[in-house]
Design brief:
5 strands, 292 residues, mainly alpha, globular, 3-stranded antiparallel β-sheet
Length: 292
């Protein structure tokens, strides 16, 4: 077993795919969020007496609609992600991998996107209601928070769907896949106390213990997301294959690899290398470019 630089860069490339999908899911539900804003504005502006007291209930119904659509799309993504990862792995695996008997189930943070959206919409209603009573002059803050919260849920959900797909494939192929590697985005928005320290962690799925070359020495902490807005995903590790070159997983080294340039775009990488943009800006530009 040797050290393989290409393996590491391919793992990070797969991660960019989940980031991009998160953006596409958000764009697809943007109309629902806009409708929610319109409903909340109209209802709350006219709310008095018992109508005012029911504003939160109305908002929760609106939020539930958004949450149900998000859950549906994330479930679809998990299945598609599983198919994509399986196809990619079979290109490089010496053993034919079999698909899982069941589609991945997207559960993350012990929560439910529908419940989270209900809470987010109710909070927006409460903030907007304060405008009616004169307690808060900034109604727009309420609706900005609704959008921001929605995007956070989508991003966490896309990550959860990716990780559910990886673990489903690994569970279905225990003789070929022996572990997983945690790969964080490593940009300015990455949580330094959770994702950054666990970046490069590798675990044996059978024992839940770290592999000998793992960057960290703790038991498998369970699949990410490990927190709201988590920016870490899992990549499968083949039994007996070369281990990834861990230096290639750094934010400075990966972008200039072949896979990094392909995933991020040559112009974005060049701007980053020339210090014209930050690492976070490079990731954001690559995500926007993929939507054109």
């Amino acid at each position: 077993m040797g050290v393989n630089d290409e393996a590491a860069s391919q793992m990070v490339s797969a991660k960019i795919g989940s980031i991009r999908y998160g953006s596409r899911v958000y764009n697809s539900v943007d109309g629902l969020v806009t409708d929610a804003e319109s409903v909340l504005r109209g209802r709350i502006a006219a709310a008095t007496g018992h109508q005012g007291r029911s504003a939160a209930s109305i908002a929760r119904n609106v939020g539930r609609d958004i949450g149900e659509e998000l859950q549906r799309q994330l479930d679809v993504f998990a299945e598609k992600r599983m198919e994509t990862i399986l196809t990619r792995l079979n290109r490089v695996s010496s053993v034919k991998l079999v698909p899982p008997s069941r589609v991945p189930i997207v559960k993350f943070l012990g929560g439910d996107p529908t419940v989270w959206m209900e809470d987010a919409a109710a909070y927006a209603a409460k903030r907007a209601r304060e405008v009616v009573t004169g307690d808060n002059p900034n109604a727009e803050d309420a609706f900005k928070s609704l959008r921001a919260h929605t995007y956070s849920i989508v991003r966490s959900g896309a990550s959860a769907a990716h990780n559910a797909a990886v673990l489903a494939i690994a569970k279905a192929n225990p003789r070929a896949i022996g572990g997983v590697l945690a790969v964080a985005t490593l940009d300015a928005r990455t949580t330094e106390h959770i994702c950054v320290p666990r970046h490069g962690g590798a675990w044996d799925l059978a024992t839940k213990m770290p592999l000998p070359w793992s960057a960290i020495d703790i038991e498998f902490p369970g699949r990410p997301p490990w927190h709201f807005n988590c920016r870490t995903t899992l990549s499968p590790i083949f039994i007996g294959e070369d281990v990834p070159d861990m230096t290639s997983l750094s934010p400075d080294n990966w972008p200039v690899t072949k896979d990094g340039i392909e995933a991020l775009g040559a112009s974005n990488v060049q701007a980053y290398v020339s210090r014209k943009i930050t690492h976070s800006q490079m990731i954001s530009r690559a995500t926007r470019d993929s939507q054109k």
